[in-house]
Amino acid sequence: MVREISAGGVVIRRVDEKWQLAVIEPPKEGSSASSVTSGQRKAQKRLLALPKGLVDPGEKPEQTAIREVKEETGLSARPITKLGDIKYMYVRTWGDKERVFKIVSFYLLRYEAGTIDDIAAAMRIEVKQAAWIPLDEASRRLAYRGEKEMVRRAQQYLQEHPETCA
Questions:
Q1: Which domains are delineated in the chain?
Q2: Residues 6 or more apart in contact with residue 125 via CB below 8 angstroms
Q3: Alpha-carbon distance 75 to 18, whole Å?
Q4: Strand locations in 17-159, DSSP E?
Q5: Which helix (H) or strand (E) holds 155?
Q6: Which of 15-29, 60-74, 75-89 has the lowest mean pLDDT?
Q7: How much is the pTM?
Q8: How far apart are the C-alpha atoms of 37 and 20, rounded to whole Å?
């Protein structure tokens, strides 16, 4: 079984006394903005995720998280703390159809600079759009259970360490 090691970022910023989170919307397979059910058009729910990607050779996971955030959102951010790891298995839907055991390390990052969604055209293969959403809505709006848990950990960290993120 193939193993993949990835890292990603929970990027936060404070605006008007409220925390915001940077998220990405991957392109949908089939690229259809709506689906047809019983002859009526029904809007599909937006799939929102956290920026993440494979750890390159010689790179530390924290460095990967910072790089992937920059590539997928257009933002520069500084690390605050590691939030934890998500472990899961999936079957590749492309190429060899092989089973993959994946570990993704997530880091809490503080926004420093950049404009959300200002990314290279080549990244549009991976990211349809990047956006800020309210942090308190993230665990409801993100698509993946493990990423929702990382957001809950980030919220807990912010509550327990307000001086770190002020």
A1: 2-29+45-160 (3.90.79.10)
A2: 27
A3: 19
A4: 18-25, 34-37, 40-43, 52-54, 75-91, 99-114, 129-134
A5: helix 145-160
A6: 15-29
A7: 0.88
A8: 35
- Contact (Cβ atoms closer than 8 angstroms) between residue 100 and residue 91: yes
Handedness of CA 162, 144, 62, 120 (dihedral sign): negative
End-to-end Cα spacing for the chain: 44
Residue indicated by tokens 């503080």? 110
CA torsion angle 147 114 127 9 (round to 10): -20
User: How many of the other CB atoms lie within 10 Å of CB of 100?
Assistant: 14
Contact 64, 55 (CB under 8 A): yes
Supply the DSSP symbol for 82. E
The tokens for 44 are 């599909």
Q: In whole angstroms, what is the distance from residue 144 CA to residue 103 CA?
A: 14
Mean pLDDT for 7-15 is: 97
H or E element in which residue 10 lies: strand 2-15
At 147, list the tokens: 């990423």
Q: Which residues, in sequence order, are CB contacts of 40 under 8 Å at separation 6+?
A: none
Residues belonging to the chain: 166
**What does the radius of gyration of the chain's CA atoms come to, in whole angstroms?**
16
